[in-house]
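User: Hello! I'm new to structural biology and keep hearing that structure can be predicted from sequence alone. Could you demonstrate with non-specific serine/threonine protein kinase? Please show me the input and the output so I can see what each looks like.

Assistant: Of course. The first part below is the input, the amino acid sequence of non-specific serine/threonine protein kinase. The second part is the output, the predicted structure written as tokens.
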Amino acid sequence: MAPRKGAAANKSGSKGVPKKRVAANGFKLPEPIAPGVIITDVAKKQWRIGHSIGVGGFGEIYLASCEIDKPVSNSADYVIKVEPHRNGPLFAEMHCYMRIARPEHIETWKKERKLKRLGMPKYLGSGSFEYNKERYRFMVMERFGRDLQKILEQHSKRFSFKTVYQVGIQILDVLEYIHSKEYIHADIKASNLLIGYKPGTENQVFLVDFGLACRYANDGKHKEYKYDQRKAHDGTIEFTSRDAHIGAHSRRGDLEILGYNMTQWLCARLPWEDNLQDCNDVFAKKRGFMENISSFISLCFPDTEPPGLNEYLEYVVSLAFDEKPDYEKCRNILREGLKARGYRDDGKLVFMSATPVLPSKKSKARTDRKKTAKRRSEEEENIAEFTPKKLKRNSNMSPCRPRNKRVNTRTCPRSSLLGISLSKPCQPEFPPVDTEEVMIEKENQKMAARKQKLRPKRLAVVKDTSLDNPTPQMIEIMNKIREKSASPPICQKRHRHNSNCYSNKSSPASEDIPSQFTPEMEAVMRKRAERLSSSDSETECYLSSSSGVGSPQMFDSSESEDSNDATVYYSPPTASSPPYMAPQSNSTLKTVKGNTRRKGTRPLVSPRELAALLVAASTELRTIGTQTSPGVRVTRSVSRQTSPELG
């Protein structure tokens, strides 16, 4: 007999080809890992793998424990996400966790914001290992409880009003933390929201699965608003934001996704869920509804509008692409909505407790009521009756018979009614939406207008024309102000200054004029002039030692090192006071040795004329010193030896 195929063949011991494990989104799932395998993360910490507790879209989740000496129990506090190396989502999620989910960062944020809890999962470790000749990547996280999607399916895909708003407030806290790290989540939905597992976290919601998280800014500079085909329509299509539909991710997109989730949790269905296969059609409907939020709310809630939801969506739509949201304002909108329904923000997620009723709306007891109606639970307050009451017909007329000239759509359909579904709510027809290029251009103009509004206003400089035509009294006052503000005179003498230096006593004309020479320099110059006037030989020797007397720039020469004289560098001042220039001639002045002269040469000037020139130069320099001339510099060099001329 031929062996049976399938499970029977495996039991008989024959080796069958193992079936490949592939997720719904096409990623290859890892092969089952036997419990007890020990792996090591990048921090050299060892973890022991337990049994599997779930399968995701790209990997599998196992229980884990840091106690490697004993088996992993069912009450383990940690889990490990495992995926093959060829997959990519866990790689992106792991690096995102490493940047924003460090335990010390989360605790510091909670302390700064004074938060009792924060639904941000903590990064505990990651790495890679090899199992059955295949390479796997893993990440260690905290263990959480059930996800909200399973709870939704158990309660007719609806949550109570209080539960929806309490979850919304907690998710806003998490988004504010993520956005502060320049990241966005981009995939908020009920299956990525998990209830806490540890005692004390039963009312806390954790936002997990950062596989689609990405950076919206780099070092404070927001990314550009443009179309990106590679990232267009990323995320869960019914909750994807309008920005994500064109591949542009922003902070307002996360808030918009949260608004779509809260709407679905309250009404169980979004208007664009009829054709989720056509991403462009879903995108067009979202744009149409967000431009007219009142029609969106009235379509989703025909009976009673939840307070605060319209205001929340209006604020999200008003945000610019690169604008930082006001998270506290969003939380206050939801808190006011809770308050309007008679609840308070106590942070509790109650799924099956009784619904409180406002005191003003409590029904009075009636004695003629035969049967008391059963009070509905909080989880059922937004859910329609499970068993609708039968409508009693007042007349025996057939419902198919036209009455009051009404059209019977069963027997006589009209062309104007064709295409309208009677089983689905009628959706409004929106005007043609703008193209993506026009939408991007409008958004860029909106961002530019916001930046221009936030830019500080420039102060206008107005010229004071009150002094253009002053009166005599004004001129007198201005002169007094100038006199008071004028600096006091400065004594130019080299001595210890006293009150006599600034007295108003009359002084000789020579003292009034500031001199550029010291008294010692003037004494040397007088003695030299006397010697030159007394002896021709001494004059010739002097001329031989200083060849630059007749140079165009006066005193632009330096004395010998044995001299105790000052060296004066002088640049010509303004044209109004030209410097003194020695007379020039065609003859050439040559140096002589001793008292002999060469044939055919004679001095340019006589000794008496030279002495007169030096005295005139001294007087001229005193006059020039009174003027403002930046080109005058006086240096003084003193030798240890005594000049023979002064001896």
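User: So the tokens describe the shape?

Assistant: Right, they're a compact way of writing down the 3D structure. Reading them back into a model, for example: The domain at 22-142 is CATH 3.30.200.20 (Phosphorylase Kinase; domain 1).
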